[in-house]
Write a structure and sequence with these properties.
By secondary structure, the protein is an alpha/beta fold. The protein is 43% helix and 16% strand. The chain has 11 helices and 10 strands. An 8-stranded parallel beta barrel has the order 1-2-3-4-5-6-7-10, surrounded by 5 helices. A two-stranded antiparallel ribbon has the order 8-9.
Length: 293
């Protein structure tokens, strides 16, 4: 058995009971930290004053928890549409500013499917937006962390290598790679080793090949819709999200890879489907703790 040193987190919204109740449940299930959605709802920069942010930070600390990251995904086509990027970049920076006040330096996001054509307008728009965000984050010793899944680890690494700074890095989700691209999540850890700053603990199976643009959205396709992705993960047309340890992720090899690259960040449980997410999350915490003893 390997010894995994990482703390265990839970995405508060996975409990589907609101932030405050979700925080209590995270404490009850034995998590060390939480990730909170900060791009929609009431937990957004425009609705939280500096004093309110301090109150939340103190309350979360009083529960014995810390914030592993914020979810700053603004949906739509990510940063593929240059006409929308000025506003999205500004909002992303506001979310990162709030994250720092709340005690975390990681904001996870989707940027859109990275296209193969490096000379196209979409690639250029994504590159320019991410280069600006990367420089901003690096100036604060912080990270915008792209969630894996829409493209292979090799394609994502090539994109990140071209930014010049590491303020835009990776939120590693092994299940997304399994379910959508069919990429090897273990090898992907070694490929992206220089960029992984946060991870999602999720599992799934791939049923048949799909075009990632149909799942995650892209210019010329429907925009990213998280509810639609969740429905797809439950309906099982192309893939199915399943409880931790019941899918195609080889957890022993995957966690060993994280140990090998000396990753010390969070393993944050995400459960987007299922009729009883709390039960699944409890099982997931217990599953991960087996590797810590």
């Amino acid at each position: 058995m390997i010894h995994v040193p990482n703390k265990i987190g839970v995405i508060v919204d996975s409990f589907r009971v609101g932030v405050k109740e979700g925080l209590l449940k995270a404490k009850e299930v034995g998590a060390d930290g939480v990730q909170i959605h900060a791009a929609s709802g009431n937990f957004v920069p425009d609705k939280l004053t500096s004093s309110a942010r301090q109150e939340w930070r103190d309350y979360i600390a009083s529960l014995g928890l810390e914030i592993s990251a914020l979810v700053g995904d603004l949906g739509g086509h990510g940063f593929q549409d240059k006409r929308a990027n000025t506003e999205k970049i500004a909002k992303s920076k506001q979310i990162l500013d709030m994250a720092i006040e709340l005690g975390t330096n990681v904001v996870t996001t989707h940027i859109g499917v990275v296209p193969e054509d490096k000379n196209g307008e979409i690639y250029e728009a994504m590159h320019l937006a991410c280069a600006e965000l990367s420089a901003y984050a690096e100036s604060m010793n912080a990270f915008f962390a792209i969630e894996t899944g829409p493209e292979t680890a090799a394609t994502l690494k090539d994109f990140l290598d071209g930014l010049g700074t590491k303020g835009v890095s990776v939120n590693y989700d092994p299940a997304n790679l399994v379910m959508v691209t069919g990429d090897d999540p273990v090898q992907g850890v070694y490929t992206l080793r220089d960029y992984i700053v946060h991870t999602h603990a999720k599992d799934g199976v791939r049923l048949r090949a799909s075009d990632p643009r149909q799942i995650y959205g892209s210019l010329g396709y429907e925009p990213l819709d998280h509810e639609k992705v969740a429905v797809a993960a439950e309906s099982g047309e192309f893939f199915r999200e399943v409880p931790l340890g019941e899918g195609s992720v080889d957890w022993y090899s995957y966690l060993q890879a994280l140990v090998d690259i000396e990753y010390r960040g969070y393993l944050t449980i995400e459960r987007e489907v299922g009729t009883n997410p709390e039960t699944d999350i409890i099982k997931a915490v217990q599953f991960l703790k087996k590797f810590k003893s």
